[in-house]
Specification:
This protein has about 120 residues and is mostly helical. The protein has one domain.
Length: about 120
Amino acid sequence: MASWQAGWSKLVEIGLISVSINAASQYIQHGSVNPVDVAGTFGTGAAGSNGKLLWNVGVNAFGVATTTALNNIIQGKNDSVAGSAFTSGALSILGYGLGKTAETSTSSLLKPGLNMQS
C-alpha cells in the first residue's frame, strides 16, 4: 500500500471509530441517532487525528460550531453556535491531555525496556 493510501486509511479508520462511539452514545441516551452529529463526528475525528493540541482544539470547535448551526437550520433549534464551539474547544483540551497521559502510561507499561534505553 502506498504511503498516501495508508495515511488516508488511518484518517478514515479514526473517523469511523469516532462515528461508532458517537452513534452508540446517542442511541443509548436518546433512542435515536442524529445524522448531522454523526457526520460532524466523522469529519472532526478524521481531521483531528493527526494534529497536536491547538489543531485538535480548533478542529473540534469548528466541527461543533458547524453541526450546531446545521442542527439549528434543519431542526429549527436555537442553540448557541459560539457557546457550543467554546465548550467543545475547552473540553477538547481536557480530552487531549487525558489521551496523552493514557498513551504515555500505556506505552510505559507495555514497553518498559524501550523507555529505559537511551
